[in-house]
Amino acid sequence: MSGAAERGRQVGFGIDIGGSGMKAAVVELESGTLRGERERIKTPHPATPAPMADIVRQLVEAQGWTEPLGVTFPGVVRSGRIETAANLDSSWLGVQADELFSAAAGVDVVVLNDADAAGLAEVEFGAAKGRAGVVVVLTFGTGIGSAMFNDGTLLPNTELGHLELDGALAEHRAAARIRKDEDLGWEEWSARVQRYLRHVELLFSPDLFVVGGGISKNPEKWRQHLDVSTEIVPAELANGAGIVGAALVAATRSARTALPQP
Ligand code: BGC
What is the rounded average pLDDT of the residues 48-52? Predict the structure, then answer.
């Protein structure tokens, strides 16, 4: 049975929530590619639940989407409930986001951590496809997101961006945003990333690092400065990864729940 058949349909729909934008697209589930352009609406400020749920509704309506869909969230999400929201409004804490978005969109919505979604897309279609062992996918953006896999199985909500680095949260020292905010050269920033990756190596002995986020587009800027023992590859799905992973999870879950239960 092909991957798409397991998921019960050929296309899915994903929304990726970030601190500055909420992005959506229809996804081809056989190839992991986006069908057409991504739709993007600015994240409201303050980034509170009600206006963001309304944007989810707008994005769904704009595509005329009527099937289950996936939404990523930049924080810990357990069974659809938001448990941390480092870069969004703290009124998200404790919100049952799957119910909120499902009510707004009028269809079933599954919610998962943004880096977990991006990691799932890399495992299914990208840089980690077919890779056994322990794979750590890290997304460098406003924060540092992480997704950890063993033989392709996700351990959700690992939050490795919140490890300590040089006396601070790692993402406050080494996120991609910090390079710009502190006007660091690539070499200087990479030195921080290297210390961070060595710490992750020490804890988890991974077989592969996949480096994602905007910086995956220009690996020649940072790759040469990183000296770690684990193999490192840039992510392949770039900015669409979260959308693809979210669509994939929603389609897989709805195909499973549609099966007769034993
Ligand atoms: C959040 C993570 C998220 C990462 C990337 C961090 O601040 O705690 O949940 O995956 O940012 O958005």
Answer: 98
